[in-house]
Structure formats: C-alpha cells, structure tokens
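Supplementary Note 3. Input sequence used for the single-chain structure prediction.
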Amino acid sequence: MAHPVSPDADSLFGIYIHWPFCAQKCPYCDFNSHVRFGGWDEARYLSAYLRELDHVRARVGRQEVYSIFFGGGTPSLMQPQTVAAILNHIAKLWAVQPGAEITLEANPNSVDANRFSGYRAAGVNRVSIGVQSLRDDELKRLGRLHSVAEAKAAIEVARRTFERFSFDLIYARPGQSSEAWRAELTEALNLANGHLSLYQLTIEPDTPFAELHARGRLVIPDADAALDLYATTQDMTATAGLPAYEISNHAAAGDESRHNLLYWRYGAYAGIGPGAHGRIVDQDGTRAATVTERNPERWLARVEADGHGVVEATDLSNEEQADEMLLMGLRLTEGIDLEEMARRFGLAPAASEIAALGALGVIEVIADSAVAEGISRACIGPGIAPTGSSSQLARLPRIRACHEGRFVLNELVRRLSRSTARVTARINAPATLRS
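The predicted structure, written as discrete structure tokens, is reproduced below.
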C-alpha cells in the first residue's frame, strides 16, 4: 500500500530531460547513452518528449517548477530550437518559478560551444561542461573527442554567455600522482566560476574499462591513494572558496546546483526521455518511482503508442522513502535532518546506531543551537566515542557522513535503515528541504 507524503515536503518540483545520444561512447561511462551514426529524427523525438510531459502533467497536476535539467547522453547535440520547444511546453503545463535554474550538459568541442548562445536564447541559464581532464593524453585515454584547447575555449564561451556554469573533471586516474592532480586541480580552480564537479574514476560494470581492469590492463589508484587524492581535493577546493557541498561537487555559497540539491534533499522530480528515472508525487499525495524504456527507438515507439515510455512505476512505502532519503542525504555536507525525516515519514534511525557509527568515525552529529543541546561535533575519529549523549538532544539531530563514511555509504544506509523505527516528530519542526 502506498503512503502519502506531506505536500509541503514535496513543494519543490524539478524536471529532468534525458537526451540519450552521444557522438562517441566513453569507455568509463555506464550512463544510458547511445551512438547513432545515421543520426536521428529530432522532430519526431521532440514530439515524444512533449507527449511524455503531458502524461506527467496528468499524473501530478499543478506544480511550480523549481529547476529543469537536460542530461544525457550529450544534450548539446540537440538543436537549440528543440530545447526551446521543450521549455516552452513545460511553461504551458506548469508555472515555472521566476529565476528557476535551467541547466544543460554540454561537451566542450567547438560545435557544441557554438550553440551556447542559442541555448541561452531558448531559456537555459546554466551549463555543465564535460571537460573530464586538462591533459590531452588523458583525454585520449578517457575516450574524449575534444582537446584541452577546445575545453578552455568552451569554458570562456560559457563565461561570456551564462551567469552560472560548471565543468567536470575525473581524478584518481591510472598512474595519477598526488602532485599531478594538485597541478591539474590548480588550473581548474583558476578556470572555475563558482562550481566544479570532481569525480573519482570508478570502474563500472559492463564498460570497456571494466574489461580492461579485469584483465589487469587498467590499474587505478588503490583505496589509500584514492583517499589521499580525495583529501587533497577537499583541502584545495575549500581553500579556493569552493568547498564540497556533496561528495563530488564543490561550490561557492549560492552557486550550488539547485537541481541536484533537489535530488539529494529528496524532493520530487519527473524523469522524461529514454532511461530517465523520476520520483513524482501523484495528485493523491502518493510518491512513485518511475523508470522509462532505456532504448531510444523503443522508448519513441512506446510514447507514440501509449503517450509515455514508462516501463516501471512503483508506489513507495514510507520505509522505502526513508531509506532513499538516507542514501541521497548522506551525500551532502549539510547532511540529513532526522526531525524532517520523522515529519515526512514517521521514521528515524535509532540513537544507539548513530552513536555506534559515530564511534567508528563514519557518522557525525552536526551540533549547533538549532539542532542539539550539549553535543559538540561527534565525529572525532575512529574508535573515539561521540561527546554528549542521546539524552541531551533537544530534538532529533542532523547527521552526516564523515569523509571516511562517504566511501562506505551503502553500508551506512544499511545499518541506519536496519535500526529505523517509528518516531513522532514535533508538529512545528522546521522544513529544512527548502532552499
């Protein structure tokens, strides 16, 4: 049986548009991306996007759109007029908040960068550029089609075109030393404009890199080296005024990705396009997890036949929602307000489990006058018990993963979920989901 959620908790509504096509599949990528050397019928795909948006509107009713994100794949392969048509249709279906963040992911080759002014005219106000490395030899190893010169040129075009932009880098690459990463990150920080996404290279199943890794032909830094690179990243970005607000994302105050914060704070969003995931709240208050058909051509046929490409739609119980909120929120530097979790779902992890994980140095209670009484920051170090006690809490606390805990998030969620029990939150608990 589905469990309705508080409308207040889901007052922020986002829309994710997935564009599935790429010019080339990168060997590390496990995203739903596809190469079509013969091209695609963009007008036909546009009609399908608009129909799937209509389907979502019928399910969720009136909403105020907080953010829109075009991801992929490579959305910068879309014509600007396609982006404009999608944005105009969204505005017909829902009210869009003034100043809503509208992001488009882009590749930094010259063709894509030349379209930036068209995307800006269409309504996009933020781009996220997939640079991945500032070293030409590493770009070739990563299967990227652009050069460092093209990446820097695209960054400058973005700087002139948009008030806000970000770019991505991948580190912990094969053979990468701390000194080499420090030099590359220094360059990146000098190019940045308030936001950087810095991802450790991970070996994803069923990718070319996974096969090479399994045969011993691709060796990435071990856990200790990766942790050192992560610590270097945290120190350098914080010193530069772009501290981490999520495991892999760094920003100056106010430059955080609002759409991604919507995910991590467990807000509601529609997933549109091939392979898109969504967490929508139906008009009866029930939260549902949706997944669309991954294959672009099969998705297109489903939409044309049925009005949508959804292949999975699952009503989520309060327990499932609480688990998802833990998994998403523990990624954030701000952590999770357990009072808010209790308000939304009537559930919270046991204080004893939080204390046990705190003693291991993987969880901390973020203590200030608004959150707890008589408790200092609990993550002192592995094997050192948190100061204070659960009996001193003025309210359910805010918790977050320590640096070491961010490497074992799934285990943290498993243990916290196992201890979760019914609780009663105070009626006037502050709604911390709002940005």
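Confidence is low (pLDDT under 50) at residues 1-9, 369-393, 426-435. The longest strand covers residues 95-106.
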